[in-house]
Specification:
With 413 residues, this protein is α+β, with helices and mostly antiparallel strands. It has helices spanning 46-59, 103-115, 141-161, 206-218, 223-226, 232-235, 280-297, 311-317, 326-334, 337-343, 345-365, 396-399; strands spanning 6-10, 16-17, 28-29, 32-36, 63-76, 120-125, 131-136, 139-140, 164-167, 181-189, 192-193, 245-249, 255-261, 268-271, 372-376, 391-395. 33% of the residues lie in helices and 20% in strands.
Length: 413
Amino acid sequence: MRSQICICTPDLDTFMIFPWRPQQGKVARIICDVYMADGTPFEGDPRYILKKQIEKAKQMGYIFNVGPECEFFLFHLDENGQPTTISHERAGYFDLGPNDLGENARRDMVLTLEDMDFEIEASHHEVAPAQHEIALHYGEAREMADEVITFKMAVRTVAKRHGLHATFMPKPRREVNGSAMHIHFSLFKNGKNIFVDPEDPSRLSEEAYYFIGGLLAHSREMTLITNPLVNSYKRLVPGFDAPTELTWTRNNQNSLVRIPRVNGADTRIELRSPDAASNPYLVFAVCLAAGLDGIQKKIYPTKASDRSLSESDQKEQGIENLPENLREAITLFEDSSWMKEILGEAFCKQYAQAKRKEWLRYSRRFPTGRSRSICIGSDERGIMGRKRVAAYEHEYRDCITENRRCKKDSHSP
């Protein structure tokens, strides 16, 4: 793939002027598709990979809509203008000024994005100090992937104008929640949301259940796409409002898939594992492919779980967890024939090689494979992630096992 000559062909529909640049000598964005010299699409282009899945859905009569919620931190810069992980803010979920010190910056981000014809669903302070969320109104998957790419650049630019650094790193600070990119999905056919069935007790259609089943069935092998960094897996631990169990729910924070709203055309399915460090084209492509596979093969999900499951519960119900680290995610990805079918063998080979090099660099820096993290002391039933339990700092690998339970027999404050 590296030796091939490629041509970038502008997609004129993506032309967009940046409102923060001077009016004289304006600067605009335009996104390109990658083609081979003979005019055929480049198989490794993430945008093309997504287009293929959208076309497959279209042939089945579906329109795939996506609504991403992008979380990020606003940190101070040092005296040399370099990013830090320092913030003097102590605001919490949905906090307002004067506690929310990033309120003005976030407002400017929203106004700037609206000047670029983005439709903003909501914006607010998140759970952790200095953490924020801006949710984009749902739209067609390719357009939304284009928007996520531009969104991150716009947010960083506006933050810098306020003397701040915006980071989409999944877990920049170990003692607080990490940042996700929760994604809401809906499928429309003949102008109607096919996830709705008023006759079902949960008001979900068979297609909705199958779509959930597909996401759960393929989630482990596609985690390398949805969570591509070493740092991604510092976020995916219990106790920090992050998913770990391959379950679906309405309100369990440890579940991978959530049903946030069942209300006619607004009914949607939310995947909670991805982070904004991922490539949105690839993430939307594999999620759509997983959902369609669930529909085609009629993969019914496990029973909905509205509580965190104990180790014995998971074993009894045959429920697995997401990969524990990047190395495990790479192995699952490489062993998956389904991923090769969706992304192409050449792409999968190159991507896995790049990620193995990334893991090797990390392992050389931390020879034992350890990194500092937080372990949440388990309660008497051995279920982690309970509120108001003491947090203890151990070496990550020594503390968190495959089932994400602490190896220590007990903890005391």
